[in-house]
Amino acid sequence: MRNQQKKAESDQELNVFRQQKWQLYMPVPHKPWFIEGKQYLLRPGLTFTPFANAVACNAHCAFCSEELLRDQHHQLTAKQLIRDYPSYFSRLQEVLAAFKGFPLGLSVSGLEPTADRKWLLHLLETIQQAEKTGVIFDEKVIYTNGSGLSTHPDLIQALLQNRFDRIELSRCHFDETVNQQIMRFNRNQPVWRNAAFEKLVSDLPQAVHLKLSCILTKTGIRDIISLEKYLQWVARLGVKEVVFREMSRLNGTYQLNTFSAWVEKNRVPIEPLLSEVVPILSRPRTGWQYAYSTFGYYYYNEHFRWNDQIEVIFETSSYEALQAANTSQVIQKLVFHSNGNLTGDWDPNAKLVMPADKSVLI
User: Fold this and answer.
1) What pLDDT does residue 67 have?
2) For residue 136, what are the domain limits?
3) Is 232 a member of any domain?
4) Is residue 148 in some structural domain?
5) pLDDT by residue (tens digit) across 4-61?
6) Which of 205, 280, 295, 307 has the most CB within a 10 Å radius?
7) Pairing of β 31-35 and β 310-317
8) Quick one: pLDDT at residue 362?
9) Measuring CA to CA, how many Å separate 290 from each of 15, 274, 308?
10) Nearest to 36 by CA among 103, 101, 95, 91
11) Residue 360 domain-assigned?
């Protein structure tokens, strides 16, 4: 329900997919849901994100979406760190209880969710308790730069015990110096070095479904040659799945600042790469095999097999499409913020679903 899958059967159909992308997503029937006596319309398959901002991020990625401002009224949860853990988790329990019986995807993201071991362990405990009372998570994913998993391996076991379906691990280049120019880890984080990163990947238990996420940039992976070198590198580490993401298309929806300017200057569109990988279905690039495409309400993916070793996904998305979907009455996404608000938006005070009585959590 989170996306729609279809395999192109002809070159013409594949071209239509690539040209129209997320516009081909067909909205699924919404489901009415009562929260605190008020009816909301929920998109089946929506995800719930407890925004991870216990501490400041230990990396400073040049493409960070949490630093993008839509307008002068847009507030950033990234700037409001969690100060009162007991109040925060008590409020989170209240919020989760409102969705008993409605299947949700759990998406742990925001800043760096593994940066504060105490917060993550408490979050996992809260999730477990909620599930025992009837809250349903049909998929659980954590998005991380790997820093805390490298320094606190017990977090990996905690994620497994909590039955997480996938760990999405960010890495933008196979050369640690180039990667550091993009992700800009605090230098006290061992994972900025390839030795620590490679050890983390190699030491992950087989039970972990690992997916590497590489943001395409002119500074880093920018063409098919560097992309295949990246795949060769991670194949040696035993990685079975990689997603190459184009930076989200802003289309003028965000104010000009250091981060939006960097995104536009360093953007690598996926269309030329797709044309090199599979220009036509009958003549793919050597080692590549088209599998299928997926359509979301603001993103489009193409899935491939590379050298019969790794599932490779190319993804592009549109913040303009995302914001357009958010203007409808249907809640597309649930985000729990550190001020206690549950919203249908990444802004902590926009599209309120369950507003907190007062801001006591920051």
Assistant:
1) 67
2) 4-22+29-354
3) yes
4) yes
5) 999 999 999 999 999 999 999 999 899 999 999 999 999 999 999 999 999 999 998 8
6) 295
7) unpaired
8) 46
9) 13, 10, 11
10) 95
11) no
